[in-house]
Amino acid sequence: MHRVKLDDIDYKILENLQNNGRITNVELAEKVGITAPPCLRRVRALKEAGYIQGYYGELNAEAMGFGLIIFAMVGLHSQAENDLKAFEARVAEWPLVRETYMLNGEIDFILKIVARDLAQFQKFLTTKLTPAPNVDSVKTSLSIRCAKKLHGVPVGDVE
User: Fold this and answer.
1) Would the pLDDT of 19 be above 80?
2) Minimum mean pLDDT range among 34-43, 48-57, 74-83, 131-140
3) pLDDT at 102
4) Per-residue pLDDT for 43 more than 80?
5) For the residues 4-19, what does the mean pLDDT come to?
6) Which SS3 state, helix, strand or coil, does residue 75 take?
7) CA distance 155 to 152
8) Cα–Cα distances in angstroms (integers) from residue 104 to residues 32, 48, 73, 110, 137, in the given order
9) Does residue 95 contact residue 121 with C-beta atoms inside 8 Å?
10) DSSP state letters, 15-73
């Protein structure tokens, strides 16, 4: 993977793809002000350089029956690297956990969990998360509403 020096057109391509991963190459080329063949070459180069990791469809959680979003702050007994990796591997096997971040400070991990209802979450909490090896403490907060949700990263000059 070699790095590509990004220019204004590359930033426009990345921003447009981040906002609409289903945009056609022709539409993308028009939006960034170049013709389709060089646009496609640039997109391929950006992929090869690792700037574009993939494309996905965002599903409506509520329409899929997952109306609850819960954040769980997890403290572990041990923060030895092998124990951290073991916890991460276990969490990777749980479909209800959608995101996992290791933190510094008092909390070791924060998990974003989705559930159909409180009963499903309670079952997950009491049969999987809390009794998992090395888990010392779990504090949870149910999301009331999402005030801002942006995917990816800011593109271009950001202050």
Assistant:
1) yes
2) 48-57
3) 98
4) yes
5) 92
6) strand
7) 9
8) 40, 32, 12, 11, 15
9) no
10) HHHHH-TT--HHHHHHHHTS-HHHHHHHHHHHHHTTS-----PPP-TTTTT--EEEEEE
One-letter amino acid identity for 40?
L
Query: How far is residue 137's CA from residue 11's CA, in Å, rounded to a whole number?
Result: 43
pTM: 0.85
Helix then strand then coil, in percent of the chain rounded to 5, is: 35, 20, 45
Taken in order of first residue, the domains within the chain and their CATH numbers are: 8-48 (1.10.10.10), 68-142 (3.30.70.920)
- b/e 123-151 (16+ beta carbons within 10 angstroms → b): ebbeebbeebebbeeeeeeeeeeeeeeee
Burial of 17 (0-12, 13-18, 19+ CB in 10 A): buried
